[in-house]
């Protein structure tokens, strides 16, 4: 391939390949986006389910402290100092209710924040005797009648959700509070899924529920100094170290989801991070999932797009190649046709030249014979003239008259011969279609060959139907017959005696003219090529191999045919020409 074409191909292919890559990248990105959006929607639905479970759990226990706050026994216990025995009874009562309600613990706190009785009184981590005045859920109950607060237990160190309800006397005076504590290990377990991380964060962004412990007590956003002070006062997370969780949003996906790079407990990873706020509690639920299917979707979409684009590219190249080939083929075809036309024209010119050359050659041969032929009468005439002069000188007029008559006959014969020669050498126009008698044409040809006939003295058998009307060019037909007769004479020259037969008769609506001889015939392997130009078996200088080729052409042109064969002792040529019926002599009978 020439280097310029290679360069052109590279220049064409390079942008196409870049285009394919771009397309693949775009398709990959688009597929990734769609897969992400799908996953985010799925995660959102899952989060709604989790939120529902959490909500149900909290709602179920919210009524418990409210009902207990109406209990006259508890109310009475807060109104006067308790004997040890009474307190013991209260402990047992709370223990029984707690067991029945499946809550984590129940506590009765007096107006100063001191725990009077608790369901966990038997345990070393019992709340009884501890002050919870600093806990927001107590302060909320005192201030607004009820409170809720998530915190790590200062006594038990077990985190839980505290729901409180104020206990009041008939006048509405604050007597103390009933508090129920809910712990969430059951919930965290039910959410446990290795593929997903589920978190609940409080209003400050601190994770306090997590289905994977390592994520618990992480800060999702930085805390202000006021936050720190409040946390210390309420001892909400007590001694838990609150570590920040480093994260960076890479892409937002809708309102509640994003693609984030997180420096989590398992190292730095990308997560699809969906969030759902829980308005009642001021909490937020989070679901983190590694977007594997997203990358796979992106890759396969990119590969599919690249594959499709490449297939299209190859199809285009193939089509282009096909078009080029078709153009080339059409060009070659046109070139071929042009060459064929050129060669045909050249051959036609050459053929015309050869026809003329053949005629001239024949004319040359005949001229030699005729010169010899004319010489004889000339010598005879000279002699006759000399004797005529003598006869006139001696006054023998009668004898002189006879001598002049002989001279006249000789001159007439010479004029006939030269007349034929003149017409024979002329190139006759091909289109001539005069009405003529074929038998007369035979006579003319024989007359032209007279010198040769006289020299060979063949046995001549003539059977000619007269008149044999046909249409054509007399001079050209004469040329055909001269060729056929001369070939027959040439072939039979060595025979003793040479025999020549010419038959002319009507057959199957045509004139059939046969020229046969006793010259030994045409060899079987030559029968197929005697009409070929330049085919000759005659010695160099004698035959041109054009006579039969030219004759064949002339006969065909007149709507007839010429064929060669062998019969008896020699060759036989058959010439067929259409009968011309136009001027049939009328029937006299
Ligand atoms: P040419 O006479 O110059 O050879 P023609 O075309 O007239 O060319 O004839 C071609 C050949 O056909 C002759 O050389 C000869 O071999 C063969 N041929 C033609 N006429 C006869 C015949 N009457 N008998 C045998 N062979 C013949």
Automatic annotation (TrEMBL):
GO terms for molecular function: kinase activity. InterPro entries: dCache_1, HATPase_dom, His_kinase_dom, HisK_dim/P_dom, Sig_transdc_His_kinase_DctB. Keywords: ATP-binding, Cell membrane, Kinase, Membrane, Nucleotide-binding, Transferase, Transmembrane, Transmembrane helix, Two-component regulatory system. It is an enzyme of class 2 (transferase). Residues 369-581 form the Histidine kinase domain. The keyword Cell membrane applies. Signal peptide: none annotated. Its EC number is 2.7.13.3. The chain crosses the membrane at residues 301-319. Pfam families: dCache_1 (PF02743), HATPase_c (PF02518), HisKA (PF00512). It is a multi-pass membrane protein. It catalyses: ATP + protein L-histidine = ADP + protein N-phospho-L-histidine. Its main location: membrane. It is found in: Cell membrane. PANTHER family: C4-DICARBOXYLATE TRANSPORT SENSOR PROTEIN DCTB, SENSOR HISTIDINE KINASE. This is histidine kinase.
């Amino acid at each position: 391939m020439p280097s310029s074409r290679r360069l052109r191909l590279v220049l064409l292919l390079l942008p196409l390949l870049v285009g394919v890559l771009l397309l693949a990248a775009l398709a990959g990105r688009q597929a990734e986006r769609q897969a992400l959006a799908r996953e985010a929607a799925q995660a959102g639905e899952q989060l709604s389910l989790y939120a529902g479970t959490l909500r149900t759990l909290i709602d179920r226990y919210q009524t418990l402290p409210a009902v207990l706050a109406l209990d006259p026994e508890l109310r009475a216990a807060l109104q006067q100092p308790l004997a040890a025995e009474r307190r013991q009874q209260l402990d047992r009562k709370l223990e029984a209710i707690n067991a029945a309600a499946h809550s984590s613990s129940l506590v009765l706190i007096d107006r100063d924040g001191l725990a009077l009785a608790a369901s966990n009184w038997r345990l070393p981590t019992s709340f009884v005797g501890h002050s919870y005045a600093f806990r927001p859920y107590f302060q909320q109950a005192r201030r607004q009648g009820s409170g809720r607060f998530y915190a790590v237990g200062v006594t038990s160190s077990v985190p839980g959700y505290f729901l409180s309800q104020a206990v009041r006397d008939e006048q509405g005076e604050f007597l103390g509070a009933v508090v129920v504590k809910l712990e969430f290990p059951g919930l965290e377990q039910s959410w446990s899924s290795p593929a997903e991380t589920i978190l609940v964060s409080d209003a400050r962004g601190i994770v306090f529920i997590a289905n994977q412990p390592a994520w618990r007590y992480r800060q999702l956003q930085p805390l202000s100094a006021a936050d720190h002070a409040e946390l210390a006062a309420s001892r909400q997370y007590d001694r838990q170290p609150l570590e920040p969780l480093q994260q960076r949003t890479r892409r937002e996906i809708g309102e509640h989801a994003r693609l984030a790079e997180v420096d989590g407990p398992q190292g730095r990873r990308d997560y699809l991070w969906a969030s759902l706020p829980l308005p009642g509690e001021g909490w937020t639920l989070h679901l983190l999932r590694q977007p594997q299917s997203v990358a796979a979707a992106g890759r396969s979409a990119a590969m599919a797009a690249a594959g499709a684009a490449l297939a299209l590219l190859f199809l285009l190249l193939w089509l282009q190649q096909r078009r080029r080939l078709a153009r080339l083929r059409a060009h070659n075809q046109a070139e071929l046709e042009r060459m064929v036309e050129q060669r045909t024209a050249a051959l036609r010119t050459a053929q015309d030249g050869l026809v003329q050359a053949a005629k001239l050659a024949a004319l040359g041969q005949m001229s030699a014979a005729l010169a010899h032929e004319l010489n004889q009468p000339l010598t005879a005439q000279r002699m006759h003239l000399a004797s005529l002069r003598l006869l006139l000188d001696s006054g023998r007029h009668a004898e002189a008259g006879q001598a002049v008559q002989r001279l006249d006959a000789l001159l007439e014969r010479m004029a006939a011969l030269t007349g034929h020669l003149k017409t024979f050498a002329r190139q006759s126009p091909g289109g001539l279609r005069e009405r003529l008698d074929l038998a007369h044409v035979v006579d003319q040809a024989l007359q032209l060959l007279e010198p040769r006939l006289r020299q060979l003295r063949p046995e001549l058998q003539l059977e000619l139907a007269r008149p044999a009307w046909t249409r054509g060019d007399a001079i050209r037909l004469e040329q055909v017959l001269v060729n056929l007769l001369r070939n027959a004479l040439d072939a039979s020259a060595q025979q003793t005696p040479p025999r020549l037969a010419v038959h002319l008769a009507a057959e199957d609506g045509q004139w059939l003219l046969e020229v046969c001889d006793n010259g030994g015939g045409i060899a079987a392997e030559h029968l197929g090529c005697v009409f070929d130009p330049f085919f000759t078996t005659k010695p160099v200088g004698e035959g041109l191999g054009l006579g039969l080729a030219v004759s064949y052409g002339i006969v065909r042109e007149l709507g007839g045919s010429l064929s060669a064969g062998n019969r008896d002792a020699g060759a036989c040529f058959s010439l067929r020409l259409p009968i011309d019926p136009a001027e049939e002599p009328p029937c006299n009978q």
